[in-house]
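Minutes, project check-in
Item: structure for the 298-residue chain
Input as provided by the requester:
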Amino acid sequence: MIAPAAAALRDRLRWRLIAATATPMDSGGVVDPAVLDRYLRGLVADGADALAVCAHTGRGPYLDLATRDLVIRCAVDTGVPVIVGVGGRPGEHTDEVTAQAARAAAHGAAGVLVFPVDGDAVAHHDAVWRAAGLPMLAFDLYTRPYPAAKLAALLAHPGVAGVKVARLHDALACQAALAAAHRADRLAVTGEDRMFGPSLLWGAEAALVGLAAAAVPVTAVVLRAFADKRYDEFVVAAADLDRLAGVTFTEPMDGYVQRMLWIAAEEGRIPASQAVDPHRPALPDGDRDQVLRVMGRR
């Protein structure tokens, strides 16, 4: 059985683009509320149907509580559904994650994206559900994938509305997770920036992707063309999106956050001074130029 609140979120997000937002900040890690507000509203204006904040793209595991609260409030003020990432920090305890979820609920979030955990994942999700009462998206992430039996157990939890599948390059695992969501009557959400078009063909019915942290229209058109069965447009748009994904979601893979911030600055969404990822890995010389060159060809 699925809880009414989870079923409602499942149905509300079907065929919707959920932008996994970045968190604009300066080199000192300071977030300007006005810049943040303009950035989030711009994503919505350009086609994001919902916002995912404090997830990996937004460096949620690194944000302090005050900054998390600010980001959530600004996102909720846009008027679209807001999914808040909870957890993701090495060594954290379930009670820390449930506290994050409860704060998200207090600020008006529509749901939470629960980072994967080792050990008893069902008990962890159940604690989050009991503490916050918010519908949950489970997270099948390539760095900490759930075995099939554990994912099935998670999808049977009444508070789980769906699963975000982000297996990066494992097509078989992606297909299996999406199929598991359908069997459980939960929302199959693609988080596959490098397999975006194929994942829709495999059964995804919504998207929560870092590619939509900027360049929202090019992502939105792929999802909407597929949902509307405009397949000729879908093929062209998916190829266009894949070219962008090829230079943003590439090794070092965690550099994608900085790359999306470069794009956001180039689009005028944020000032260049706020397009800083303090947690970025070392990036190759010429990386920024390559990203912006491909972006300009769209």
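Outcome recorded: DSSP finds twelve helices and eight strands in the chain.
No further action items on this chain.
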